[in-house]
Amino acid sequence: MSAHRRSSGRGLLGWLFAALLAVGCAPAHLTVNIKSPADSNEGRPLYMVIREVDPKQYLADTYVDVAAKVVTPDKTVLQTVVIYPGTTKQVRVKKPPELPVAIAFLFTTPDGAWQTLLDVPLPEKVELELLENRIRTGANAPPSPQPALQPAAPAAPEKAAK
Prior knowledge:
Type VI lipoprotein IgE-like C-terminal domain-containing protein, IgE-like_C
């Protein structure tokens, strides 16, 4: 084998190794897409807090506890963002290695779900829609499309009267 062939083969292998290493080491991110209608939070801007959280702590945290993290973020806070009514926003954060992620919206007068928990394994993307004073959840989300109707199974024969 000629020297030229050996060196070009090594270059290709080196390039492939570097590409695989770069992909394997790239931090995983979570993309959060937020749709905020004009009437969300009574038309006023609000904060969104994205944080890593232990599930037990998530259940114990109050609205006041989470709101305090806007002014004094601790090591759990991944990002705080102002959300403006009538806009859409996309936020990208680095996924924590092991813990779930809580996403809280600090409505002026929350009425229902104001935060949500994303359990591990975390998705790559989440879509959230705000309502006037809460997050749209399964209970207040529009109904999912109905599956195509299946032909009905034949009815069982009725017993003859005696």
